[in-house]
Amino acid sequence: MELKKIGVVSALFRYPVKSMLGESLTELTLTENGTLGDRAWAVRETSGRIATAKKWAAMLGFRASYDSPPRADGLAPVVIVFPGGEHVHAADPDASARLSQAMGRAVTLERATSTRVARSTRRRFSPMFRSSRYFRISPAIRCPIRLP
Length: 148
Prior knowledge:
Elements: E1 12-14, E2 23-25, E3 27-31, E4 34-35, E5 41-45, E6 63-66, E7 78-81, E8 87-89, H1 95-103, E9 107-111, H2 119-131, E10 143-146
Antiparallel strand pairs: 1-2, 3-4, 3-10, 5-9, 6-7, 7-8
C-alpha cells in the first residue's frame, strides 16, 4: 500500500476542562479514547447538563492547564485561570463555589470518569480511533505525538 501525505500537524492542543480554553503543547499522548487528559473535567449546571461554550460563551474566558503531565493511572493537578487572572485548582474544595461566583450561576466542577464520557466525545473519537482502517490504536498501546 502506497502512503500519501495528506497533511501536516502544525499544532497540538489539550483542553483539560470541557469548553474552557486549553493549552498548546509540543507533545501529547493518544489513547484509545483520544488525547490523554483531554476534557478530564467538566462544568455541570444545576439542570444536570454539562455546560458548554455553545450555550455559555463566557466559558471561553477561562483557561485550564495541567501543573504536571496527566497519567492514565491517576489525577494530575489542573489549574483554572479566571478571566480576571485569579486561579483555582480543579480539585480544591471551593473550586465549584468560586466558578459559580465567577460565572454568575450555580455550577459544579466534576472529574470525568471512563464510564461517563460525553456523547459528543464518543462520536468524535469513535470513527477515527476505533473504526479507521488507516489509523488504529490498541487499548494497550499509548502513542506519543511530538512536534518537530
